[in-house]
């Protein structure tokens, strides 16, 4: 009876309810090439949404590219961990910035060329650089006051400390502006700008002997072509004038001190480049006006004005207005571009600006230039470019 019981087989129902045997999972074979050891990275933080990972792996293994069905990862896990997100490229923003800087540079150079042409025309007919310089600052001050009053431009928030810090900058700017105008009244525009291309040499010398700053040897070597080129251009200048030469040299020195005072006085100030130059023009006008009256005077101005109008006609008035307005505009755009670029890029742009002014003035005023004079100018400008590098 026991043997019969042992020989009884389970019924079909019992067999159906029994758990099936475990079947092994067959994975695809690894490639036979150079295999790498498997390295695992263990993190104390829990993995999130593991089903997303498994779903992605299974889709890839099956050869299907349908990833849209897998759920998106969450913005953050419980412990604050966030999935890695690939940021969109900022190429459109950088492209727009470069285009804006390019517009600034082109506008800056064009306005500077126009100013120098009209400024030289005015000084040829009206050789009074003190009044001419005053009118340039007055026009800029009037433009900015009108733009502030009509709210075209937001007026800057300034205090007494701001104006105290601005005063030495305005003093140096006034001296440099008048000296450059005196130079252009006595010599050709091209010669003035050739001498003014030596401004980096003054910058290095002033910083070395007055501020105690030291520079690498290549910086000092870059001054040799600047000084040599300016000297060669001055010696071979057909219309050389000592007053014009000294005016350009004084302008270089004054603008170097202006830059030094600007760096020291404007630390921590939040005034835009446009408004900063507007304030600078207004303070320079207040400083310059009494000196202009003392040096030339209203009687001299009235006589010279009548003579210029009689010789040139009504166009002389437009020349004065143009040189005054364009002086402010080109300086304003240069300060606006300085807000967007580094001082190195600004220095290179300033060097290229002088090239455009020199070439344009030689063509328009038909200034006679000897080959050795042109070589000196090219050497000086090349030295300035090397110094910028």
Automatic annotation (TrEMBL):
It is a multi-pass membrane protein. One of its GO terms (biological process) is monocarboxylic acid transport. GO terms for molecular function: carboxylic acid transmembrane transporter activity; organophosphate ester transmembrane transporter activity. It comes from the Eukaryota. The keyword Repeat does not apply. It is found in: Plastid, Chloroplast membrane. Keywords: Chloroplast, Membrane, Plastid, Transit peptide, Transmembrane, Transmembrane helix, Transport. The chain crosses the membrane at residues 101-118, 130-149, 217-236, 242-261, 273-292, 312-330, 371-388. GO terms for cellular component: chloroplast membrane. Residues 100-388 form the Sugar phosphate transporter domain. It holds the Pfam family TPT. The keyword Transmembrane applies. PANTHER family: SOLUTE CARRIER FAMILY 35. This is Glucose-6-phosphate/phosphate translocator 2, chloroplastic. It comes from Dichanthelium oligosanthes.
């Amino acid at each position: 009876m026991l043997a019969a019981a042992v020989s009884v087989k389970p019924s079909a129902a019992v067999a159906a309810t029994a758990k099936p045997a475990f079947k092994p999972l067959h994975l695809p074979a690894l490639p036979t090439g150079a295999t790498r050891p498997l390295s695992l990275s263990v993190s104390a933080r829990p993995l999130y949404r593991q089903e997303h990972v498994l779903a992605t792996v299974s889709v890839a293994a099956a050869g299907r590219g349908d990833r849209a069905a897998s759920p998106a990862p969450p913005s953050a896990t419980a412990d604050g961990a966030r999935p890695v997100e690939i940021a969109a490229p900022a190429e459109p923003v950088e492209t727009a910035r470069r285009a804006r800087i390019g517009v600034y540079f082109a506008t800056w150079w064009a306005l500077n060329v126009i100013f120098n042409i009209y400024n030289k025309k005015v000084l040829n007919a009206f050789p009074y650089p003190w009044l001419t310089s005053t009118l340039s600052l007055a026009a800029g001050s009037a433009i900015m006051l009108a733009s502030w009053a009509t709210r075209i431009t937001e007026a800057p928030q300034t205090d007494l400390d701001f104006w105290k810090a601005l005063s030495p900058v305005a003093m140096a700017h006034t001296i440099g502006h008048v000296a450059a105008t005196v130079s252009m009244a006595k010599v050709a525009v091209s010669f003035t700008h050739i001498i003014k291309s030596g401004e980096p040499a003054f910058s290095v010398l002033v910083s070395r002997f007055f501020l105690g700053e030291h520079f690498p040897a290549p910086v000092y070597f870059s001054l040799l072509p600047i000084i040599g080129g300016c000297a060669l251009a001055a010696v071979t200048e057909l219309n050389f004038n000592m007053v014009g030469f000294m005016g350009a040299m004084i302008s270089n020195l004054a603008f170097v001190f202006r830059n030094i005072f600007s760096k020291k006085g404007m630390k921590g100030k939040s005034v835009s480049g446009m408004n900063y130059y507007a304030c600078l023009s207004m303070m320079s006008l207040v400083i310059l006006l009494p000196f202009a009256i003392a040096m030339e005077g209203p009687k001299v101005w009235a006589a010279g004005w009548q003579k210029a109008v009689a010789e040139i006609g009504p166009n002389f008035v437009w020349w004065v207005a143009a040189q005054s307005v364009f002086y402010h505009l080109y300086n304003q755009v240069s300060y606006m571009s300085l807000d967007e670029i580094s001082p190195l890029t600004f220095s290179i742009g300033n060097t290229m600006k002088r090239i455009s002014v020199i070439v344009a003035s030689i063509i328009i005023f038909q200034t006679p230039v000897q080959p050795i004079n042109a070589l000196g100018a090219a050497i000086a400008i090349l030295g300035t470019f090397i110094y910028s590098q």
